[in-house]
């Protein structure tokens, strides 16, 4: 049964605790004759459990946000050194392993990290470069490196079919084609264990540069936003039932691994921003200042777009230009965003991610033309994808499932087929009461329009993306073409939902 049927069939007592957070508490209390009680809501959340094969722990006392120091200068991302001396060749090693680091003064926290760095090191390469990265897996689990958004061959994509066993290693090798310049990242993608490996720290950043970049006059800073949960003993706990239901969020929102760093912006600068969170949405806003959006997941737009705020779903990236030469002190904020979570969770709140200090400096002229996005041409194929959630009483417990087209992920099943080079329209429908970000491997797409409450809204600007958010009961129409054969994933990028089956497979022939 779906969520609505489930709620209609369980008793009135738990009803209010399963309604999404967007519902009014007073209206719900009138319908049930009760008031909200946090302890009862927590108990109800424990009744709605994920698969018994997943690790689930009870909620534990957490560190106060003030326990993590804040206010230090933003540290640049550590860059992965190129061990190759050949022109057009990038060669390096990433080791995935547990490591103890001091996040809270006087306490050691065990994280899982690439090359003992949190976040993982930044890889920078140019279009046309051949990249070779050796992964050494020193975890107790199989892992992969998924090159999120990068146009790599299917057998180099790091999906669940190509897991690297504990104690083993493998070499990833791919060439970055012309037109692939953009802001990407990398993270594990073994089926079932992806959520844990990412929330324990395994994620890194990747920039592909173009020798024809029209924004080289702007100095550049990088902001990798992640979140972290720590218990009172400064350790990273396993997921609770609420995490598996809603997606995991930590009490700390970090920029380059720091809490509320101070970012000095000299004149007008280019910022690359990653949402590397498992499930946290970021409605980014700079009080008192607009910014120019110049790039999304798949690189530069055709022309800048002036904005006051923008929502980044998990896994999305942007490039912006910010600063007007005026000295001022403000902040980078993540405004509250209601994504309709369940289970009586704490209400969303505005967060300060960083302090921004603007100082005088160069003010390069912003180009009004950034690049020409190639037209994909007329579509000759059409696909439909539906995200949905169900609840059941399997085994005497209230179970949730996260599905694609009514099915849970099966690595041995091909769900859709495409032909190499054929232009397609994908109709993606979120048939659920919770936001879900859709991610497609192996290619990028262009959003044509979205449909919500019977209103069709055309895309306001052209952009290349690999991840797009869908609000409850929203449909988006995407145009795309696959240029490489193989088996590719498409899934929800709330990692707990992906890990529970909200993923499917496309075979390109």
Quick tags:
seven-stranded mixed sheet, Immunoglobulin-like, single chain, 32 strands, mainly beta, about 500 residues, globular
CATH class of the largest domain: Mainly Beta
Helix content estimate: under 10%
How does the major sheet shape up?
7 strands, mixed
Structural class: mainly beta
Looking across the biggest beta sheet, what order are the strands in?
1-23-22-25-30-27-28
What's the topology here?
Blueprint: H1 3-9, H2 12-18, H3 25-32, H4 38-47, E1 48-49, E2 89-101, E3 109-114, E4 122-126, E5 130-137, E6 146-148, E7 169-175, E8 182-187, H5 194-199, E9 204-209, E10 220-228, H6 241-246, E11 252-255, E12 258-259, E13 262-266, E14 269-275, E15 282-285, E16 291-296, E17 299-307, E18 309-312, E19 317-322, E20 328-335, E21 351-359, E22 381-392, E23 398-404, E24 416-418, E25 423-431, E26 436-440, E27 445-452, E28 455-458, E29 467-470, E30 475-481, E31 486-492, H7 495-499, E32 503-508
Parallel strand pairs: 1-23, 2-5, 4-9, 10-14, 13-21, 22-25, 24-32
Antiparallel strand pairs: 2-3, 5-7, 6-8, 8-9, 10-11, 11-12, 14-19, 15-18, 15-20, 16-17, 16-19, 20-21, 22-23, 25-30, 26-29, 26-31, 27-28, 27-30, 31-32
Helix pairs in contact: 2-3, 2-4
């Amino acid at each position: 049964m779906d969520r609505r049927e489930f709620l209609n069939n369980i008793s009135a007592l738990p009803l209010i605790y399963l309604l999404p957070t967007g519902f009014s508490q007073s209206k719900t209390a009138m319908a049930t004759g009760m008031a909200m009680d946090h302890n009862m809501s927590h108990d109800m959340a424990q009744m709605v459990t994920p698969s018994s094969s997943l690790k689930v722990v009870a909620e534990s006392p957490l560190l106060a946000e003030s326990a993590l120091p804040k206010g230090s200068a933003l540290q640049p991302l550590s860059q992965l050194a190129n061990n190759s001396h050949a022109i057009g060749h990038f060669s390096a090693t990433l080791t995935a392993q547990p490591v103890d680091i001091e996040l809270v003064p006087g306490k050691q926290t065990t994280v899982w990290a690439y090359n003992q760095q949190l976040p993982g090191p930044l890889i920078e390469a140019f279009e046309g470069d051949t990249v070779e990265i050796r992964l050494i897996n020193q975890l107790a689990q199989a892992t992969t490196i998924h090159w999120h958004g990068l146009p790599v061959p299917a057998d180099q994509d790091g999906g669940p079919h190509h897991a690297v066993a504990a104690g083993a290693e493998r070499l990833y090798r791919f060439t970055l084609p012309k037109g692939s310049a953009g802001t990407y990242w990398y993270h594990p993608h073994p089926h079932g264990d992806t959520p844990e490996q990412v929330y324990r720290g395994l994620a890194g950043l990747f920039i592909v540069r173009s020798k024809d970049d029209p924004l080289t006059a702007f100095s550049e800073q990088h902001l990798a936003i992640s979140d972290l949960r720590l218990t009172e003993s400064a350790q990273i706990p396993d997921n609770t039932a609420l995490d598996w239901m809603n997606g995991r969020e930590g009490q700390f929102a970090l920029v380059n691994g720091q809490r509320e760093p101070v970012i000095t912006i000299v004149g007008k600068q280019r910022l690359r921003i990653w949402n590397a969170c498992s499930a946290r949405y970021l409605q980014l806003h700079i009080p008192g200042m607009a910014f120019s959006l110049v790039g999304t997941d798949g690189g530069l737009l055709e022309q800048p777009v002036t904005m006051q705020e923008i929502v980044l779903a998990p896994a999305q990236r942007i490039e912006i230009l910010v600063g007007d030469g005026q000295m001022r002190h403000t902040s980078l904020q993540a405004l509250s965003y209601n994504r309709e979570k369940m289970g009586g969770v704490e209400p969303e709140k505005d967060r300060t991610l960083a302090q921004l200090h603007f100082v005088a400096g160069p003010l390069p002229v912003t180009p009004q033309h950034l690049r020409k996005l190639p037209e994909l041409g007329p579509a000759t194929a059409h696909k439909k994808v539906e995200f949905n959630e169900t609840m059941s009483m399997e085994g005497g417990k209230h179970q949730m499932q996260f599905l694609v087209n009514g099915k849970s992920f099966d690595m041995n099943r091909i769900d859709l087929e495409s032909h190499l080079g054929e232009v397609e329209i994908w109709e993606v429908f979120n048939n659920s009461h919770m936001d879900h970000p859709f991610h497609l491997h192996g290619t990028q797409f262009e959003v044509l329009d979205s449909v919500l409450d019977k209103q069709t809204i055309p895309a306001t600007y052209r952009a290349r993306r690999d991840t797009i958010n869908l609000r409850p009961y929203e449909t988006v129409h995407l145009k795309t073409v696959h240029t490489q054969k193989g088996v590719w994933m498409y899934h929800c990028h709330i990692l707990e939902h992906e890990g529970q089956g909200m993923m499917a497979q496309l075979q390109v022939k």
